[in-house]
Amino acid sequence: MKATAPREPATSPATPGPHGAPPAFDVEAVRAQIPALHQEVHGKPLVYLDSAATSLKPRCVIDAVERVYARDCANVHRGVHALSERATAAFEGARHKVRRLLGAADSREVVFTRGTTEAINLVAWSFLRPRLRAGDEVLVTELEHHANIVPWQLVCAEVGARVVPAPIDDRGVLDVAALGRLLGPRTKLVALAHTSNALGTVNPVAEVAALARAAGVPVLVDGAQAVPHGPVDVQALGCDFFAFSAHKVYGPTGVGVLWGKLAHLEAMGPWQGGGDMIRTVSFEGSTWNDPPHRFEAGTPNIAGVIGLGAAIDWLLGLDLAGARAHEQALLARATDALSRVPGLRIVGTAPGKASVVGFVLEGVHPHDLATILDHEGVAVRAGHHCAQPVMRRFGVPATARASFALYNTLDEVDALLRAIERARALFA
Ligand code: PMP
Q1: Comparing C-alpha atoms, which of 85, 242, 222 is closest to residue 141?
Q2: Average pLDDT of 113-135?
Q3: Please, what sign has the CA dihedral across residues 360, 365, 370, 376?
Q4: CB within 10 Å: which end of the chain, N or C, has fewer?
Q5: DSSP state at residue 125
Q6: Residue 258 pairs with which residues in a beta bridge?
Q7: Which part of the chain has CATH 3.90.1150.10?
Q8: Three-class SS of residue 34?
Q9: pTM of the entire structure?
Q10: Which of 146, 149, 197 to mutate to test the pocket of ligand 1 (most atoms within 8 A of CB)?
Q11: CATH number of the domain at 25-54+319-426, out of 1.10.8.10, 3.90.740.10, 3.90.1150.10, 3.40.190.120?
């Protein structure tokens, strides 16, 4: 059945504070809304420092998902009954909220996917594959997540094209001049992370996009780690595609977004076939629905999309400038304290980083360190962070990574440091 075209609802601004001032950022008020923060792990209060892997969810997101299953439980785009109309309105409403979040021009540019990974694969197969010839190149950077490397390798392997990495320096800063030199007539796409999940580096995406534009090369931005620390404005960035995952921005798992310029999406063929993505079907042949539905075959993650909408409302209702300053204070405290720990090396020291700190401790494998920290109630990630080329670049097999969200506190940074001291004492 044909999907309905999205319509823009009236948007309601965040509730103003006193005298019309924006509501103040208050970490304790935020924490009170996140149920998962309030638990003990191994008899210790949870200190959750793994938000770059996935963020914890506010009550309003959990409630929005529950409401779908408890009340508005229907398929979208295909029923005239009340429940389906309610579900469809909430689903398409979320599309408008994403448009607002990303500063996009048109809600038809917002495609719902399973996550960043699926969004990048969609571009690889629907946009790039038909344009790619033997000898062509996809230009990435050395700091990419595997999700922004492997899909390009898969399409390149089909035609004899290749993936070329632009270098980063010893701090994890992208060498933009080198990237510029690698841009050439063979380059068919530049694909780069906005923010590195392993290093915290924030790439100068607008600068890279301007270089690429001058060379006539489209740009995809992996925004998985950028949206949580926003704001993001895809039009100001000047990119062609932008991908992110709901679960890293306080929303549910299993849902994400591909934003693409409408002209690109209109020119792209479908990726997967099935319900909703067609206009007509016959045994002689089928025709395609318009974007974004052309790329949303089958029943989508309805509750996930609606939960993402709730997460966006929640986020945009906060004092985001205050939240960002708070995250930067957490990062500064952690960086300063970790730098003083004997035998500890921070991996990724780019100026202007996001609140992600990767580190290695002499004589202690990152996995052992993370296990010891877990017993202290402190949740960090250990491993290659799906960024093996980055690990290779820094000569380490793995790091431990503490990643801070707007709901973390300075006391939790101190708890991390106390737990690291305990680990050092164990291995002394
Ligand atoms: N890119 C980056 C920079 C990431 O951090 C992640 C998630 N770790 C991804 C892509 C993939 O996101 P997802 O697993 O949600 O598809």
Answers
A1: 222
A2: 98
A3: negative
A4: C
A5: I
A6: 111, 243
A7: 25-54+319-426
A8: coil
A9: 0.94
A10: 197
A11: 3.90.1150.10
Place of tokens 């070329």: 164
Structure tokens at 200: 């915290």
pLDDT value for 11: 36
Beta bridge partners of residue 364, listed in sequence order: 361
Question: 387, 381, 393: which is closest to 54 by C-alpha?
Answer: 381
Question: Is pLDDT of 7 > 60?
Answer: no
pLDDT digits (tens, 9 = 90+) for 311-323: 999 999 999 999 9
Distances from the Cα of 296 to the Cαs of 6, 120, 292, 310, 387, in angstroms?
14, 14, 7, 21, 29
Q: Give the residue, out of 301, 386, 390, 401, with the most ligand 1 atoms within 8 A of its beta carbon, to mutate for a pocket test.
A: 386
Amino acid at 51: S
Token match 């969004």: residue? 119
The CATH number assigned to the domain with range 63-315 reads: 3.40.640.10
60 an active-site residue? no
Take residue 323 and report the two structure tokens written for it: 């939240």
Put the strands of the sheet holding 137-141 in their side by side order.
Answer: 110-113, 256-260, 241-245, 219-222, 187-193, 137-141, 162-166
Pick the closest to residue 267 from 244, 286, 240 (CA basis).
240
